[in-house]
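User: Now give one protein:

AI:
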Amino acid sequence: MSGRIEQLESGEVIRCIDPRSGAETVTLPCTPIDQLPAIVSRARVAGRAWAALPLPERRAALGRLRAAFLGRAGDVVQLLAEECGRPAGEAWTSEVAANNGLFGWWIDNIDDLLCPDRLSLSPQEYPKKRGLVRLEPLGVIGLIMPWNFPVALPLRSMVPALLAGNAIVLKPSEHSPRLGALLGELCAATLPADLVQIVQGGAPQGAALIDAGIDRIIFTGSVRTGRKVGQMAAERLIPASLELGGKDAALVLPDADPDRVAAGVAWAAFGFAGQNCAAIERCYVHASIYPAVLEKLVARAKALRPLVDLGPLVTEAQLQIVRQHLEDAVAKGARVECGGQAPGPGWFHQATVLSQVTEDMTLMQEETFGPLLPVLPYTDLDAVIDRVNGTDYGLTTSIWTRDLAAAEAMAGRFECGVVTINNHAFTGALPAASWGGVKNTGHGVTNSRFALYEMVRPRTVVTDAMGGDREMWWYPYNDALVDAASGLVELSRAGGSKLQGVRTALSGLLNRWKVST
């Protein structure tokens, strides 16, 4: 398995494996579990000083981090190849260029997003009072991140969290520890000491992080592990954001352009060898154009070049899951239109298109996270929408059609967090667009202002310049107070007597301080 953890006399180490060849590259030490409380404590101290800085200073520091990241872009791409087998085209677009845009959007918009909301207080009901709601940092945010987007996913949370005034403790995947270490190195060079801490290791280090006194945990990974993370967080009353994968579907309507469908679906299904929570893992095509779309998809899959267009699976365990799903489908009657082999080198698996697929097959219900694409015909639109919604996941869905208005109207029928029309999955690279899902995909949001709200707490500050020793709702309680309140309610009540309400309210207000009982 890539990035396997072993125990040596000097402690636990991660043996890094290049998935393109299966060869070991380097060894990194794991973070001792007993150091986690001190690590979080140092981050908290640094975070308090960081949060006290004016926002323009924090923004300028993130600008320096952005410049440092771009200056090491070549190193990022090289490590993505060595740790994840990622082709250069994917690395530059999804992990470098997209993150440049991420930095830019948050830096440009953070002032408006953190701007306090002023309360609208009636001068009659609340004289000489003013108030606002500020967005304050949570404190220390823990990140447990996966290996499939080992740079983009951490930065999606780190950038807004840091701008909001938080400190970060990041545990990268044990399958991409060197990329996590590089992020830590860049932060150490551009941000205050201890503000961003890196914890290396596997599940024990992740559990210890949750137990070390953080203020929120953000986790991306499997449903199984996500449940454990959520349970641990709940026991400690720590808010948790959990993004747990998907089983995305593409729905191709009869008027769709087969050439665009084939090009777009092939990219969304086989990009990063399908190791994307938003990869298309089910493709439903109207029967009238099914043969044409299937033929074009097969041609697209066959044209993919190993290690140029299509990389390997990152771990040997993931390769075994892909093989199991394929074997189950074939045993139940699926036809392999192309691919279907795992010839190597390393943990490479060919892009595979399948037909004659049924809903009871494992690859139609469980997340495959690999380069398998089942393509199914349909005739009944309502029935196929039920099939699209018929899994335990709900991340993204795409609709392919020339009738854009009809597709936009249809979008609300899908049980998912993102709907795209005539495209798929790329919205994760849009920092202004919310990213999240429903059902077993988990909860929590990355990107957009909604992600920021998970990294701050609202604090209401109300100032009263009234003076004196009287407020309408203070003691003493008396009949005049009751008249004033009930008269105001009568004025607002549907069917109430406006005249009676005015009389009762005025009487109460005039007599409120004339009597004490």
